[in-house]
Amino acid sequence: MEFLGNWKRTDYCGNIDENWIDKEVTVMGWVFRRRDHGGVIFVDLRDREGLLQIVFDPTINADVHQKAEKIRTEYVIAVRGVIRNRPAGTENPNLRTGKVELAVSELKILSESLPMPFSLEEGEIEKVGENIRLKYRYLDLRSENLKNSIIFRHKISSLIRNYLNNKGFIDIETPFLTKSTPEGARDFLVPSRLNPGCFFALPQSPQLFKQILMIGGLDKYYQIVRCFRDEDLRADRQPEFTQVDIEMSFISEEDIISLIEGMMAELFSGVLGLKIDLPLKRLTYKYAMENYGTDAPDTRFDLTIKDITGCLSNSQFKVFSDTIKSGGVIKGINLKKLPLSRKELDELIEFAKDLGAKGLLWVKIQDDGWQSPASKFITDEEKREVEKIFQTENGDIIIFVADKPKLALFILGKIRVMLGKKYRLYDEKTFNLVWVTDFPLFEYDEEEKRLVSVHHPFTMPKDEDIYLLEKDPLNVRAKAYDIVLNGNEIGGGSLRIYQPALQKKIFELIGLSDEDAEKKFGFFLEALKFGAPPHGGIALGLDRIIMLMLGKESIRDVIAFPKTQKGTCLLTDAPSPVDDLQLRELYIKRILPKQ
User: Fold this and answer.
1) Is 495 part of a structural domain of the chain?
2) Which residue range forms the structural domain that includes residue 64?
3) Within a domain: residue 379?
4) Taking the model in full, what pTM does it have?
5) What is the DSSP string of 212-235?
6) pLDDT value, residue 183
7) Angle 336-337-343 (CA atoms, 0-180°, nearest 5)?
8) How many distinct structural domains can be found in the chain?
């Protein structure tokens, strides 16, 4: 076993190039590859910045060469020697260091490694199961792919901080141990030993704290902050996630939109070298839903949804007529000339049924008329009207869904996204950013039989819609906005209610009594009474932004230590049981689930 002693690294392995020729350097890192070529040992030494070929030649130092024979993959070593040109014909143009090598004169073996559970070679590590890579995350972090993702994340965070600092924002921390407030998902609860029977909650977002900061006069706040939600997971969700949290005072929606557009342009330019055209396109919530079936539309390709309820209102086709009579709609998409076989059309019908549709009707437009199971039930005049709405050409395929408005849009929206991906209707390397605005303030929850906030109950209604709160609350629009990247919501925000009377009215409409409001939000409601400025903000999902910019399938690929889809950490084996003494100190009794 050897120690580093007074050795100092000259530079990273990956930074050594022709400028270092004939100079003595000291480098340190992990043995990535080892090759013994007739007595001369070659090692590719790896550190954070890349690889450097080092050479152990017995003619330079026989003792060091003999010592190097013990080196194996992933040993940690430090070497000293002179940089020289690689022999002609052995250069590697794919490496910054590919024209040089280090002729080693001194070697320290600092740490040995067990045989690796998997290879870190590009093309090999991708074959390793995700659970194995999560268990050995410290090894996975050494891989080029994950390492670069983590460094990319650092660059994004740095650009965001610099951008907001230069705009006059202040980075302020908010508590992790706070009060449990309803925000749409389950809270993670933390028992308080000093207050038996009471619990902190980990914040789902710093929403109320950042609004209190505005009341406190700190008019431009931001934070790159950890948030926590105890919810079922998927590829783009984690129980703990990171968001870029922003709040401003005395501003309009335009101020926030302009701020974020500038930041996104700087991010794409700074890390990907791409120019984002500003201002970004804006779609109203209503337009996005009616044309794309979602409030997070992928605008990289066409295939928009059309409504043909009107031209089929007198249809003799029972499926259509019964749907319309019951308050439903008929909507469809012209799939143009996608090469869908009859088998694939049948599979599309099953896909729609899995999403909750009663069925799906298809039509092929041909020279001699419609080819469709329902062709004989639809009149020629109705066919002409349908073709006009969809602007069809011979060879086009139209699909229809007849159902309740919300479900029909949902199904067609999902089909649209699935077909876009399956048939590569867009360039995967393109990035389309779009704003969605004018969200409804409320929606009706069928299960709870009451109004609920679409965003959160602190969202400001449009000034011109406030009069509708009393008589038609479902048609009140919010001063809310989402930013969408390639069909993924990456951020959302709103202007906030800052007048106590209006906040009280919103609570009433969602069925929150004065007593419950005081119990859950009393500290905030009191703060509003001491002169609250007009304010608003936005929260951006940092993990999701980085995932999309890097073209990854999961946010786990851009987080250093993520959880599995079951919310567990395979590296540390968390969550795990704790002993009874710890529980007694917290006044908690262990109740095991029934087998």
Assistant:
1) no
2) 13-111
3) yes
4) 0.93
5) HHHHTT--EEEEEEEEE-B----T
6) 59
7) 115
8) 2
Strands (E) located in 410-565: 433-437, 442-445, 450-453, 480-485, 488-495, 535-541
Strands 50-56 and 40-47: antiparallel
Please give the pLDDT value at position 43.
97
Q: What angle do CA 183, 184, 187 make, to 5 degrees?
A: 70
**When comparing pLDDT for 317 and 270, which is higher?**
270
Separation between Cα atoms, residue 258 and residue 443, nearest integer Å: 28
pLDDT tens column, 487-514: 999 999 999 999 999 999 999 999 999 9
Outline where 335-399 has alpha helix (H).
342-354, 380-390
Boundary residue ending a domain (425, 457, 472) = 425
Q: Strand pairing partners for 102?
A: 54, 83
DSSP 52: E
Is the distance from CB of 28 to CB of 78 less than 8 angstroms? yes
d(CA 539, CA 47): 35
Phi-psi region of 438 (alpha: psi -120 to 50; beta: other; left: phi over 0): left
Q: What angle in degrees, to the nearest 10, is found between the helix axes of 285-292 and 405-422? A: 70
Tell me the per-residue pLDDT of 95-114, one tens digit each, with 9 for 90 and over.
999 999 999 999 999 999 99
Q: Do residues 231 and 185 touch, judged by C-beta distance below 8 A?
A: yes
CA pair distance 216, 306, nearest whole angstrom = 49
* d(C-alpha 200, C-alpha 194), whole Å: 11
| DSSP bridge partners of 240 | 228
Say yes or no to pLDDT of 1 above 80. no
Give the Cα separation of 115 and 113 in Å (integer).
6
- CATH number for the domain spanning 412: value is 3.30.1360.30
The residues, ordered by sequence, that sit 6+ positions from 49 with a Cβ below 8 Å of its Cβ are 12, 13, 14, 15
The token pair that represents 169 in the structure block: 């924002």
Q: How many CB atoms lie within 10 A of CB 331?
A: 22
Instruction: Report residue 129 CA to chain centroid gap.
Output: 22
Contact 396, 334 (CB under 8 A): yes
- Cβ partners under 8 Å of residue 43, min gap 6: 31, 32, 33, 34, 35, 53, 54, 55, 56, 68, 71, 77
Q: Which amino acid is at 533?
A: P
